[in-house]
Amino acid sequence: MDNHLKKVLVVDDEPKIIEVVKSFLESKGFTVFAAENGKQALEIFERGNIALIVLDLMLPDMTGEEICMQIRKKSRVPIIMLTAKIEEVDMLRGLNIGADDYITKPFSLKALYARIEAVLRRSSDDLVPLYNRPLSMVAIWKLISKVITSKKIRWKLTLPQMNINYWRR
Fold this sequence. Notes:
By secondary structure, the protein is α/β, with parallel strands linked by helices. It contains 7 helices and 5 strands, in the order βαβαβαβαβααα. The protein folds into 2 domains: about 5-125, Rossmann fold (3-Layer(aba) Sandwich), CATH 3.40.50; about 135-169, no CATH class. Helices cover about 45% and strands about 15% of the residues. The longest helix has 15 residues, at about 110-125.
């Protein structure tokens, strides 16, 4: 996945975690913004075209849950919660209020990166092939019909019309 234009916001009140995560993600091609509290996080989010947020839950001025709920009122940006809260009830609450993933501390940078890639892949508007293989006509038709439906255009084609040779007559 091409990350050179992806902006990630890392929100944590521990400067060491910000430093390590920021450095690692920058080495993977991301542009990384950092915030040490909720107010900074919301300001950065409002200013930039953020592709993903890595969000700690225990911040000095407001909780990560509050930040997540405020962002969800405005945006579907992917949010990965990165927290020391290890109880299942905390994880379920985080996912129920809008987080796309939940990682507990201590954590692996490689696992964080893999989850970021997975969340971005699922949320991408780009048509990214998962495998290097040609698409079948059915797969192409599903992609075209998704685009047509999203543009509020309704075309009804019969199965023979979906065959490329039908249009060459």
